[in-house]
Every structure is written in structure tokens, then in C-alpha cells.
Fold each of these.
Amino acid sequence: MSQQLIEAITDMREAEALQIATELLDGGTDPVQILDDCRQAMEVIGQRFGQGQAFVPELVMGGEIMKSISGLVKPRIPKDVQAKRVGKVVVGTVEGDIHDIGKDIVAFLLDIHGFEVIDLGVDASPQVFVDKIREFKPQVVALSGFLTLSYASMKRTVDTIREAGLRDEVKIMVGGGVVDDHVRAFSGADAFGADAMAAVALTKSWIGG
Amino acid sequence: MSKTPQELFAEREKRVQDAMALKVPDRVPVFLSQHFFPARYVGMTYEQAYYDVDKWLAANEKTIVDYEPDVYFMAQAPIAGPGEALEAMGMRQIKWPGHGVPANRSFQFIEGEYMKAEEYDEFLADPSDWTVRKYMPRIYSNLQGLGMLPPITSMLNGYVGSAITGILAIPPVAAAFDALLKGAQVAGRWSMAFAAFDRKMATMGFPEFSAGVALAPFDIISDMLRGMRGAMIDMYRCPDKLIAAQKVILPMQIGGAIGVAHMSGNPRVFIPLHRGADGFMSNEQFEAFYWPGLKALILALIDAGLVPCPFWEGTYDQRLEYLRELPPGKVLGWFDRSNLVQVKEVLGDVLCICGDMPVSLLESGTPEQVVAYSKKLIDTVGKDGGFVMSSNTVLDECDPALVKVWLDFTRAYGVYR
């Protein structure tokens, strides 16, 4: 483990982080170890985000640095090395709404906390949610919405999941810009998350990890 | 004897101005943020709001007459202009009802990296030139030809260099000008109708919330140019340019808002805020990148005799101390999800406070819940004046009956004794 690399990433020193990663690679460090350092650094950033000590710029910039380092490292990793995942979460912005910032942050944080995230993108119809639940068998479904019109879409999505006979298979959370606990009750979801770390906490409480 | 519309107008305007000046009005003023609500109320589609100006204005009139707000707010709806104008120019930056989103869905903005990081220098060197030749072709598919224009300053060659005249005749350039003119003609017709509507509402006794709009310089960059990701990466990779660009944008926003205020005669300027909210960035970043531009904008508008009305979308609970730097009694702050009791404590002697009534409750609550929430707001935030009752955001999907319960209760219970 390179504490130096981790700190360069968590302190957003991009050029230095890339330089250290290059030196480590050239010095024969296992590329998987370097990626694991990146993951640890992102976990630190995620924790700081949850504690209100880091914000969206750090998530974005941390992600950028990690992407650059992955670009350097990945060609040298054997294909069969895969990270272990603790559970699956289907995430999407509900039908009629094309906002992705909040949903992307939730997906990103779930990913660095070890969950496999199936991201349905934006404007995802109730049927798409049902199809993907059947296909991936997630334990948790996260519905995101930024606009007030998303309330009705969230309700339709939960209803469609119920009509498909899948309601008992998944826990459903709702969140996003104008979503609150009234919307949780109105839509028939199990929980409302006020922010992205709440989504992680809810997921952990439901499937562990 | 019932009051004349002129008396009612004066009474409503005074009520709102008293609240804005942090005085105690006769009762809590009510503010109606219509947005697409009138469409639902009269049973027309959102799409029609973009294509049938008479029908849309009639729906707004009915809403205003039936709900009797002290100030109505329809922005210069429809947002981004009439559908025919958007089509003529090939607007790519939003989807609007019937065009990319279903007929009964709100418009939505398509954020993107409309300016690359490497283009800061070009933008800073000549923002007008960059806007015309680079930005407009990117956000309007039918204005591609503008990208073929030479720099406008080539006209400085005077009689020696009239080369530009030939370039204007090249088919793609001519097509771009045709598209612009067609869009402008439609937009012009709508603007006239909206201006006439505002005058008509005034003669019927109803003041408008605001006519002009300004954006925080950071939001121009983050929303319109670099995208959120881009602007946030710039905080680390090129912070100086991010700040320099805001300094270039600031006077444009001030000038634009002053111009509209003078034309309309309405001093209130709506400032919808996006990326400065809690969670988007740290207080240090807010202090370095967001607040200086926003504060300068607000102060300049006050200096020009106008009333800035920032919409603090999201929550600003972590930033309230900064707002204390604003002069007292000059600004109306519309709050979305901040803790209004805390806002009142920290800022009650600085800002007139407005907002907070959850649209989720007005959409799916019970009348009892609506009344209880309104009562709590009036008792706490409304105490001693300086408060305007409003929904936390636009009323689009709200239940017309619950909106009536909310406003009727506020008017009855919100009387200051």
C-alpha cells in the first residue's frame, strides 16, 4: 500500500498522484495493488463526503484522478481479477425526469462501498425497472428524481414493481432534489434518503456490507 | 363597498413592499409561483403553453383571478421561449413539452460541456465573438452557419474591407440568419403579448413578482458553459480562469437585469441559484468561487435601485452567515428547503424571507396537513413581519384544491394584529 499515493489522491494533487502511480508501476508494484490504493483513496473521499468534509468537486476530481490512473494501470492487469461485491442495487432516475447529478453521486458512492450498481440512466420507465429487477435480481432499488413530476413517476414505478409480483423481492428507496418523506409515503417506497450517504447507509442496513 | 382594482393593486404592492422592507404588513402576503400550474388548473397541456399564447395567458389570468395572490409569478413563461421560436432556431439545450419530453411534462435542461476547458482563453479575450461564432452554433442546430462568420471586428477595416458582406450570402450563413429572424419574430410576438398581459393584470389589481432575471456568474459557467463536472474540475485545474471568466460575466448580468427592469418598470429581479447550495461545494469553495460573484451582483442591483430576489434552491443552512453581509431590508430571499426557523433567526433582520411550503404536501397531503404546516410557518417565520408566504418551488403538479386551502388559510390566519 502506498500511503503517499492515497494522500496525493485524497488531497486532489493530480499531477503528483499520476507521477507516483507511474513510478510505482515502473518499480514493479502489482498493478492490482495500485488500483486498490485508488479505491481506498476514494473510500476516504466518500467518508469525508458523508461527514460534510468533502463535496461534489472532490468526488468529481477524485473520480478524474482515479480514471487517469486506471488508464495507466488497467492494461497491465489480468482480465480475470475481479473485485468481490456485497450486493446489487438498481439505480435510475424515474420516467419523465432527465436529471442525473444526484443519481450519479449515489451510484458512485454505492460502487466505492462495494455494491454492484446497475445504473438505468435517466428517464427510466417503470417497465425498464421491472425488466432489470428480473434480469439482475438486486436486493435494493433506488429511484431518483429532481422534479416534482417525479413523485407520480415514483409511485407508478413502485406500483408496476408490485403488479409484477416483485415488490417483496426488493427494498425500494427514493431520493433527489425535491423528494421528501411525503413522497416516500405517497409512492409506497420503503425509505427516503435525504442525501447520497443516506442511500449508502440504507443499502448497508438492508443488505449489510 | 368593495375596493377598486387600483386600490387593491396599491394594497397588495404595499403589503409586499412592507414585508420586503422588514416591516409588519397588514397581513402575510401570498406569492403564487405558477410555472406550469395554470395548465393543469384549466385543463390544457404543457405543450399548448409553448404553442398557443392566447390560451396560455388566459389560463394564467384565470389562475390569478381565482387565487388572488398578492404577487403572481409566471417568469417569462414558457421558459426558454415559445416552441415555434425554439424549433426555428433548433434549440438543443432544453427539451420542452412535446419535444423530447411528453406533452404534459415540464421543460428540462440538457447540461453539457458547451465550452471546453481549453477555450477559456478565447472566451476571456473576446466573449462576444466567442458567443456568436462558437456558442450559438453549439446550442442551436439551425445556427451552424454563424460558425462560418469571420470575427465581427473584421468590419473595423472600414471601407477597405467589406469582405463580410460576401460571407453573409454563403447558404449556411444565410440560413442561420433566416432561422434567427424567424425565431425572433415569434419571440417578439410572444413578448408583446406577455407585456400586455402584465399591464392588464396591473389594471385588474395584481402586481407581478419580477420581470427581469439574472444568474450568479458561477452558475452561468457551471450551467451554460462548462457543465457541473467541468466547472468543478476547473476549481482544481484552472481556478484563476474560473474566477476571471466570472468577472467578465458579472457586468453582463447586471446590465441585462437593469435593462429589463427599466423596460418593464418592475424593480424586482429574480435570481435563481443553482450550484451554490449546501452539498455542492464546501464553504471555502463557496467563498472562493461562488459568493464573490453573487454578492457583487446583488449589491450592484441594489445600487441601481432594484430589489434582488434570489431563489436559494436546495438548502443553504451552512451558508447563512455569508448572507448577513447583505444590506438589511433590500433583498427578498426565496428559500426552498433550508431550515426557515433558523433562517429567520440568523437573517430575520437582513432579508425578507419567502418560501418553504412543500409542494409535496400541496400535491399529496391532506387539507389538515396543509393548514397545520401553514400555521406553523406563519407562527414562526411570519412572526413580526418580513415574511412572504410561498411554496418551496414551482407549483406544477399541485392539487388546485389544496392550493386554495393553503392560500385561504394564510389570508385568514396571517392577519397581523
Amino acid sequence: MNLKSMSKGLLFLALTSTFAVTATAAETIKIGINVPLTGFAASDGTSALNGAKLATEQVNSAGGINGKQLELVVYDDQASPKQSVPIATKLIEKDKVTVGISCSYSGATRAAAGIYQSAEVPYISAYAIHPDITRAGNYTFRTSFVGEVQGRAGAKLAGKILKKKRAVLITLNNDFGKSLVTGFREKAESYDVTIVNEYPYSIKDRQFGPIVAKVKADNPDVIYATGYFFTAGPLVSQLRAAGVKATIIGQEGFDTQTFIKIAGSASEGVIITTSLDRDSNSQESQEFIAQYEKMFNHKTDMVAASGHTAVKVAADAIKRAGSTDRSAVRDAIAKTDLTASTGTISFNSLGEVIKNVQVQIVKDGQFRHYAVISDPELLAPPVD
Amino acid sequence: MQYEISLLTIMGISIIAALSLNLIVGFCGQISLGHAAFLGVGAYTSAMLTKAGVPFTAAVAASMLMAGIIGTVVGFTSLRVREDFLAITTMGVGFLFLGIVRKQDFLGGEMGIAMIPDPGLGKVGYLVLVLLLAATLALFSIYLKRSWMGFTFDAVADDEDTANLVGIDVSSYKLIAFAMGTAFAGLAGALYAHNIKFIDPESFGFVESITILSMVVIGGTGSVWGVTIAAGVLSIFPMWFQFIDDYKLLVYGGLLCMIMLFSPDGLSGIFGRFLNTIRGKNFNASGQ
Amino acid sequence: MLFFDLLVQGLLQGGIYALIAIGLTLVYGLLRILHVAHAGLYTLGGYIAILITNATGSFTLGITVSMVSVGFMGMVIYRLIYQPILEKPPFVALIASIGLFIAMEEIYRIVFGAYGITFADAPLQGTLNIAGIYLRHCEIGALLLAALLITSLSLFTRYSRIGIAWRATVTDPGMSQSFGVDVIKVRYLNFFIGSAMAAGAGSMVAVMNNLVEPTMGSVPSYKALAIIVLGGLGNVRGTVIAALIIGVAEAFGTIYLGNILDRDSIAFALLILVLMVKPTGLFSKG
């Protein structure tokens, strides 16, 4: 009987909270965020949200936007399209956000993008790379590289800068890995790089013994490995332990101190393409890196920088638009020319970001500047 | 109202999915841990067909057919293996299906299928369609339960060997249960695809299969209205519990565990006992 | 050369799988329960190993504390979750176990953070070169540990009084009870041993990856189920062999079938094939 009445009460409480209209807060500008805070993508979600929170804090302490404070409305979508869709509807209809930002993975972002587009509310993808996200329409933008663009940069890095000839691809089997590899393959030949073999692995894999053994037999001089810190760390560690000496090229997924912590000394000499330059002269980047570490007691990473940049772009656009009219803000975003922690941000006609690729190398247990790739033709994102 | 409409649509689709599994697990007693794969079959079939220009109604019908056919094939495995072995086999089928889809570029591979066409009914129209279909399936389930087929399913679920002895063609009935259950799962999948308009292999994985199974078990396996309510509530569970965002998955897991410990026959069991308590009280009150 | 390299890798992975799967098959053999939450104990083993090692500097202490404490945790889970529902239909225990597993993963995330934890100074990272095959010390350690624990278990059940009583209980609980065997004690022992072995596996994997994450157990949770079914539910020897077979199949499969099937599918495809031919698994209960 107790359980019954308890569950009845819980039912009632939950019912009212779901269908209750959110009370309008006093004069804040709202940005909606869908982010995975539980589930398998929780680590990236937490980082991205932290970056977004830091940006909000910075904007507000500088006086807010047009006199009002910025407020983030955050919902956990568990990186699931099934949840990101009702969340998007809720943010647009109930919370009445001016702009939506996705700090989530591609599936969830793509599903929500359709909702934002039909409701004509601007939506910025912080780090999700699925090409169809910006194809949802003129209200969708992306502040991080499309996978292919970064992949092409990787090919130039391997062939032209590092002068390697034989490459093996170790590919993460999801949209992130696949699109990076597509870009790499596209340009490999033009930089004289032969792809000897490709080995796919799943996002859940941590033991790469068989792949390592095969790569050793292939004997390449460079390995283009795609993944996130929790796969890249063990992978790099196991490659080096097996005596594989080839240079390893990674991407933004590697870009976190935790990667270095996991791989230890094996991470020395790993080179990555990314958007965050630890040695950057830019005040934006330096401030971001320092303040992030202070606020969250954790070294920053690429995903956090992406979340940070997305919020800064949104805030800047709302300021330039001078209002929270969603259509005016959208136009303002399209005209963005902003220096953010991840470089100078501007968008092409599709809403894809145009910016340089930073190349970093792990030296003495830290990411350091190695090179910059700024070939506009190579890095041109798709226009449709 | 958009938000409420989207929630109700999701509820409706989940109810169809859960009721479809109920036919297999609840009515016929065959444990299936890979049911989400059949939603996947329906979703992918409908998505591919509508993107190729096939009209919505035809595509959905095709999805049901496709899912039912594959379901029957899987049903054949249920003739080979029993109980716990069957549970794991169906789980394996789920993984195998995903594993294959992931690698096929024409099915979108890892990228999934985006920009799935809108059926053109508008949000409210679609909701009405989904709810009508859910109600139809619920009524069909109740009818089935009371029919001779339902009675036979019950016999098979209870004791296969004895059922066989009394002349029931157990194999055929198992196959029928699988065929029906998976066909309706295909329906749910197709409706899902046109609602969210984006599908990828991850949406139909093991976690999803477990979620649907827990709806059936918490509702009370076999109980049509119990499963309906459980599916409705659990499907929008994450949205209900936004206010304890960080803990909601913990609460969900804990809830599953607790309900199994304290009321294993689910909601229908709770209600049944409640009714008995009332009846008992009335009984005494009449002085008999 | 490559062949042996892959074979060794496969056996290594298989050994880890075996350590995890044994606990699962022990529970099934005794209670007919699919103890999915077992994978949560594997993860817990990894966490405790890292925490104790980081605090005391000794990995030996870390893994020992891990195995013993997780062994006890397994007993607690039996007492609180499974004992009350032993008489209910099978899917009740299954759903309860799944719910418990989800809750455990979430507790790890909330308490230890979403990023996971690493060793302050990872032990056993040195490499040994045996005829061209490089094996890290931790990998050799894992193989040795697996061999040691499995052999000990085998000897224990064959030659010690408690072990024999245990085997009897698994084969026929009613009969053994009439012979005076304390069935409850046997059950506790069952959970202790299985859980401790899983913790051992978790600790070794923690060293091999230098990373323990909340969701570390999600793959073993279903993979181990496939393994114990392949081996014949309740058959320990069958489970070990099945684990090794799957480890090796995955090692070769990921390289040569990588473009057709992903890793998990290889294990399950193998399982389904075998079950179609032999519906009770490679070895029947015995």
C-alpha cells in the first residue's frame, strides 16, 4: 500500500513537472543546450558543457548582452536522437530560447537540427560532425570542422609536412572516424601517401592487440589513427609497447590531457590536427585555457573549447543583432567574424565554419604548437 | 502544444513497440532480447522506400512485411533452442543485424539515414495516426488473448511439452507469435523513422531492446493494459525526470530493480492485488 | 609470425573473457539466473585496484583487496537482490539484474566522474620480446593470473571437501541437502569466487588500459552471456574453452572480416551458428 501511494504521488509530481509551463525568469537571454550528461558519451558532454558554462560566465561578468544576463537552459539527451527531439521542442516552445546549441554527438544533433530548422530558431553544432546537420537548412551552423576537412588536412600533414610515404589507417567505426578517413583518402595521393591498409575498430574497444600485431607486420611510416581519448590512449600505448615506431597522427578526439595521462610516455611525439593551440598568442585562447583550469580544476580539451566557442558565437551574434528576434540573430550568426578560443570563426553559405587547422605535438607531456595548415582551397568546407 | 504533441507521439510509438513484444513474450512465453532489431528493420525499410519516392502508406506496409518475414526466420531459431538459450540467441540476432547494417554504405552505415521524408499529415495528424494504431493494436491484443489462438499461446507459454502432447502444433504457434510480434515492431519502427526523421544503427541496439522488454515486464507480461501504461510512462521517463537530470538513469535502474523485487508481476499485479483488497474489504463488510 | 601474434592476442583476450564468464556460469549453474550485474562487479574490481594502488603504491595489495572486497560485494548482491526472487519466473531476475547493472554504472559515474580514473604510476608496463612477439608485462600477468585462478578453481572443486560439496549442490541441490550440505553457504561461496575472479580480470584490464571507466562493463555484460551459452550454460570447462575460442575468433575476425562485420557480431554470429547445430551449446551442463 505504501509503495502504491508513493508511486501515485511520484506520478502526480512528475506529470505536473512535465506539462507545466516554465516560468519566465527575470530578464535573461536564454540559450538552449542539449548535451549527453549520462550514458556512454558523458565525458565529452561534461567537457563541452563546462566550456559553455565558462563562456557564459565570461560574457556575464563583462556585462552580459545588451544589458541582460545570459542564461543556459541545459537538458541531458544521453546522445540519443529519441531524446534530443523532444528536448529541442521543449527548449523552443516552453523555454523560449533565442538560440540552440548542441553539445552532443552527431545522431542527436542531426535529429534536433530538423526541429530547429522548421521552427526557424538558430542552432549551432559545437562539435558534432555529421555533414547533414548543416544541410538541415539556413538556421543550422557548425563551429567545428567537418570531418572531411580535417581529414584532408591530415593528409597534407602526413605527406607534405612530415614527408611520409606509407600510411596505415586505424579507423574508429562511427561517423567521426569515417568522415575523417574519407577526407584523408581524398587527398592522400596528391601528397604522395600510399594507404597500405585500413583497420576499423568499435568505440567500445580498448584492447587493440590484433590490430597492433597486423600493423607491425605492415610496417608503415605513419599511422592515421582516429578516435577519442579513451580509445586513443590505450591504442597509442599498445602500439608503442609492441615496438611500432611509426609516427602517429591523431585529431581533435585526442585533444585532451587525459589522453596523455593514459598513454604516458607513449604519447610523446604524437601529432594531432585540432583547433586549439596551447601555445597560441591569441588572448582568447590563453584566457580560455587558464580560466577553464581554474574553474573546473581539470585541464581543458578540444570538446570544451568547442562548447566555449559556440556560446561565444551565439552571444556575439545576439549582441550584433541588438535583439532576441530569432531571424535577426540567424542573420547575425551568418555574418560572424569572431576571434574565439578555437581560432577566427566565420561561416560559409551552408553554415560551415571556415578556419585554420592547428597542428599540435605532444612534447614533455604537454600539447605544444607544431604547425598551422591554412590552405583555403584544401580546407574549404562543402557548400551544399 | 508542440512539446506535448511530440511527447504523446513518442509514447504512442513506444506503446506499439511494447505491445508487439508482449505478443511474443507475454502471450507466447518466448523471451526475446533482440526486439529492437525488428524496429530497425521496419525503420530502415520505410526510410529507404520513402526516400526513393514510395508513398508513406505503402512504405509502412512494406516495413511490416519485411520485419515479419525476418521475424519468422528468427522464429525458426526459437524452434531449435529453449528459454535462456533463446534469450541469448535473440540478443545475438540483434547484434548481428546492427553489425551488418553498420557496414553497408547503401544503408547509411555509421552515418545513418537523415532527411527522412515527412508523411505530410502535420504534427497533430501524425499523432492521431499513431494513437489510432496503438489503440488498434491494444484491442487486437485483447481480442487475441480471449480467442482460441490466445488460449493456445497460453498453453505453449505454460508448458510446451504438455501442449505438444495434447496435439497442439507448438512450432507453428511459436512462429505465428514471432511473425505477428515482429511485424508490429516493424510498424513501430517505421512510425519512429518518420517521426524523428533520422535513424542510425545505435538507435536500435541492445539497450533499446532491454528498454522495450522492461516495459513489458514492468507492465506485467501478458497484461495488455499494464504493458500499455508501463510503455507510456517509461518512454517519456527521461523527460519526466529532467529535474534530477544527473540522477535519472540511476533512478531508472534502481526502479527496475526495485519493482522486480517488490512486485515482479508488474503494474497489473499491483492493481490486481489492490482490487482483491477492496473486494476482500467489501466481502467482510457485507458480513459474510 | 603474424599468425602467432594474432593467436596470442586472441588467447589473451579469451583469458580475460574466461575470468569474467566463469563467475557468470557459476551463478547460472547454481541458480539459473542470468547475472548481468556481474559485469558491474568487474568494473568495480578495476576501480578498487586503481584506488588502492594509487593510495598505497602497491599493485599486489591493490588487486588482492579488489578481489576480496568485490567477492564480498557479490555475496551481498546475492543476499539482497537474488535470494528474495529465486522462486519467480526467470525474466524477473534478469530485469532486476539489468536494473542493478545500470544503477551500478551510474554510481561509478557519479562518484568517480565521467572521465574515468587512471593509475598515478601504471605498474607492469615493461615489455618482453619473445621470438618477435612483444608482450607487455601486464599482459603476461593477465595470462598467468587467468591460468592460476582457473587451475585453482579446478583443483578446489575436485579435491577439497567444500569444493566437492559445491559441485554436488550444482548438480543436484535437493540430494546434496539431504546429505547435509549447507546449500546457503555454497551459494555464498559461489558468488564470492565468481565475483572475485571478475575483479581479478577488471584489475588486470585496468593495468592493461591504464584506464577504468564507468561503462567498462557494458561490453562484457552481454559478451559474457554469449560465451556462457556457447560453452553450455553451467559448464565451467565449456565456458573457458568457449571464451578462448571467441577471443581467437575476434582476433582474426577483426582483421580479416573487419569490413563485413564488427567485433561483437563476430562473437554472436559464431554463437548462433553453433546453437543451430548444437542447441545446448558446445558442451552440455556437467
